[in-house]
Amino acid sequence: MAARFALCVHVARAVTRTSTRVLGQGHARSLSSDTERTLVAVKPDGVQRRLIGEVIKRFEQRGFRLVGLKMLQASDKLLAQHYVSLQRKPFYSSLLYYMTSGPIVAMVWEGHNVVRSSRMLVGNTDPAEAAPGTIRGDFSVHISRNVVHASDSVEGAEREISLWFHRSELIDWEGWDHKNIYHL
Ligand code: TYD
Predict the structure, then answer these.
(1) For residues 109 and 177, what is the distance between their CA atoms, to the nearest angstrom?
(2) In what residue span(s) does the Nucleoside diphosphate kinase-like domain sit (predicted)?
């Protein structure tokens, strides 16, 4: 059985409840679209190359909210479910081998159009096609070691988030800078 690494953002639920209560007065979310969520994962090559902070930085500076974060050694079973649509691809077995070769940092990011925006931040699947300025365009060379995963649709994101995270691991919080990022 795959061992789990311990890095988990388990912000105490009591703290979250307090924050929500304090911030909630007069700061209730007025946009439903700003609660769209996506799964982003720093793959084993990204972890080995110390790129976790770089990936987080790009999503934070854009204005998205981190609502879940953990490091784990993913199991074959989890990855088989995650990549179910790729089962018949010739690269499938090497993809699973690589994705289980070391720890992964899985995250859930939230915000307006976060699925589409994160695909732009991450860049093309093939680093040779990924624009400079994107994560893959800046930090990778070969398609089989492209540093990061990001869900490709809202429906896919919901499915992937439920595979990688338990509901209790996701924290609902309100950013103090909300009115500076969103048109209310
Ligand atoms: P895919 O879901 O098509 O791309 P993305 O990650 O951009 O959503 O493929 C999943 C991963 O499979 C991809 O990130 C890298 C790997 N892969 C290969 O190793 N070789 C390939 O030819 C392709 C298409 C993907």
Answers:
(1) 16
(2) 35-172
